[in-house]
Amino acid sequence: MAKEKKTLRPILAEDLYGYRFLGDLNWDGKGKKAAFKVAVSDVEDNSYKEDLWLWDGKEVRPLTFTGKVGPYCWEKEGTGLVFAKAPTDKDKARQKEGKPFASFYELALAGKEAKPLFTLPITATGLEKLDDGSFLFTGLVDLYHPDYHERSGQERARIDEERKDDKDYEVLTESPFWMNNVGIVDHKRVGLYHYDPQTRRLSLLSKPSIGVSGYQIDKDRVFFWGEDQGLVMKWKTGLYVVDLKSGKQRPVLEDQARFVIYGFRKVGDGFVMAAADNSHYGMNENPKFYKVDVKDGTYELIAQPDQGLGGLVATDVALGGARSDKGDGDYLYYTTVKGHDGILCRIGLDGKVEEVVRKAGAVVDFDVKDGKVIMSGLYGNKLEELYVVRKGGKLKQVSAINEKALEGKYVAKPKALDIKSEGQDVEGWYLLPQGYSKAQRYPAILDVHGGPKAAYGTVFFHEMQVWASAGYVVMFCNPYGGDGKGDAFSDMRGKYGTTDFKNLMDFTHAVLQKVPSIDPKKVCVTGGSYGGFMTNWIVTHTHFFAAAATQRSISDWITMYGVSDIGPGFADDQTGGDMFTTAGVKKLWDFSPLKYVSFVRTPILIIHSDCDYRCPIPGGYEFFTALVNEGVEARMVVFHGENHELSRSGKPLHRIRRLKEIESWFDKHVK
Fold it and tell me: 273 near 292, Cβ under 8 Å?
């Protein structure tokens, strides 16, 4: 008798609630145990709870249970942790009224409860404990009151009242004036603070006008990098050093206005900087590696591997904070995308680049101590887990935090399909529904990644699995403009909607040829950010697709000017246009899908968020209005309070609603 084949349960949108997201991974001072944060959905509060967990060398276990853990660091001796309590709604209301504060707690690993340590009058974004028992913090600086933390209680109360009176107003003097997932940043910076618990003195180390991007400790001095912004951000990063004892600060590089600095680390007896001058490939240029003489500010090019620093293979199941680089011993370790995989590399002062972890999937976060690497990753089409790196880059999984989340569920395996298109090698994949039969006919979805400097791979992607479980063949690929293949491949300046469009259409037709069970009259298309732009471009240039869902998109490069947090120069950089010349405006308009809206016949769902400051919502409203006036079937769904990250880190209920809106729209038109 033939054995009956077990039917697996479909993956549903709501399964997201059961996923755990790892982040902020840190070894203790000896590299024997590691702490990290785990976030889970809180459906009742429509938010995420974050707690501290520990890997003690043998197993993982939670350390806190409140769901309210913010930035944290190890005690230097490794016996405990210091963390900031995440603000409650009441706390957030106080902070909105202009009362910045952060409460810190100490948690002994052998103890049961965290004990209050101190409270500071800043909004802290990160912390690290120094050898002498003092702390470094990154935190917000208000340029109207940069010395707020030094004022007396009475003076701070007066400033608080002023801010409270001004809460219904915004005064803008800078560009850009807001930042996605942050809000208004006019006259606000991220500063570097030092706090001594013995003297209770909190000092701002960085010049108030510098927005600090990162820092590197070297004994009694701290190097940090960031832009000393005037009224207009130039997207150029200076490197500075401050002496912790004297408080004296000075610029380091002989040319402070040349680079965008992505990382600066102590390596051996020197320093390595990853930086780009954007002189060859514009704002998306990959960084080069330089050896820096911090005494005279000179620098020497040691490597140009044509790789990004940081970056992640596209997914919607990596929520937590992730490190992009770290110095350890004689190497700078860094994550990058190569091909369609997220890998870990290292480079020494000699400029030699080595691959530490190269495996199908993606490194999400990592830490390294004395050459020992611990990391979280997405491998084997599974959710995030914790791994330690053995000799030869082999990985040993040391957690099973997400194992049960997919137990008994149908997880479609990506099937590779690579093509040649317009002289480009285009990597792609497709997912088949459970029980796929050549005798049936199936609808399909083409999913276009964001970026455009991003990449799809073989990692688990919740939205795609939901669609495959719902009976769709899901197609996705890496067209021209993406990450992982070097600057020349990702250079989209003046080419939007050309080679990339042809690559996507050629890949779609290749999948249809490979999987003839797909009904060519029932193929849908969707994408977000650049993928949203591309969805708009596709429906304004072909009638092939039965339905479309465009998300957080650009429809008009002209109206994007001055309202995107990338800055007014981004549209010019990417299109070759210019807002202030007739020919330049024409070029911006020629690259705008809105120009071609009269061609559209495809029913379109528009998803946008009213706090999206990367691709602001006016572009969505414009596109919707034009479609309706052209008689095209259209539906626009606006998510209040969400930003550009809705699909990846939006509130849990909103993420589910988004998925249901898309699936319902496609079902209506092809099922």
Answer: yes
Question: E strands, 348-421, where?
Answer: 353-357, 361-369, 372-379, 385-389, 395-397, 415-416, 419-421
User: Which residue, 291, 316, 574, is CA-closest to 465?
Assistant: 316
Residue 613's SS3 state is coil
* 98 closest CA partner among 173, 158, 37, 31: 158
CA 309 – CA 288 distance, rounded (Å): 10
Nearest to 615 by CA among 586, 587, 577, 574: 574
The residue among 241, 368, 217 whose CA lies nearest residue 293 is: 241
Is the CB of residue 631 less than 8 Å from the CB of residue 662?
no
Q: Which pair of structure tokens corresponds to residue 632?
A: 């095209």
CA angle centred on 92, ends 87 and 96, rounded to 5°: 145
Order of strands, sheet of 80-85, starting from the edge strand that comes earlier in the sequence: 69-74, 80-85, 102-108, 115-120
For the stretch 577-627, pLDDT in tens is: 999 999 999 999 999 999 999 999 999 999 999 999 999 999 999 999 999
pLDDT, tens digit, 9 for 90 and up, residues 281-325 = 999 999 999 999 999 999 999 999 999 999 889 999 998 789 999
Nearest alpha carbon to residue 476 among 491, 494, 499, 460: 460
Distance of CA 280 to the CA centre of its chain: 25
Angle between helices 652-670 and 462-469 (to 10 degrees): 40
Alpha helices in 113-270 (DSSP H): 153-165
Residue with tokens 């005064």: 171
* The model's pTM: 0.96
Q: Hey, what amino acid is at 30?
A: K
Which residue, 224, 8, 262, is CA-closest to 126? 224
Amino acid identity for residue 320 in this structure: G
Contact 28/379 with Cβ under 8 angstroms? no
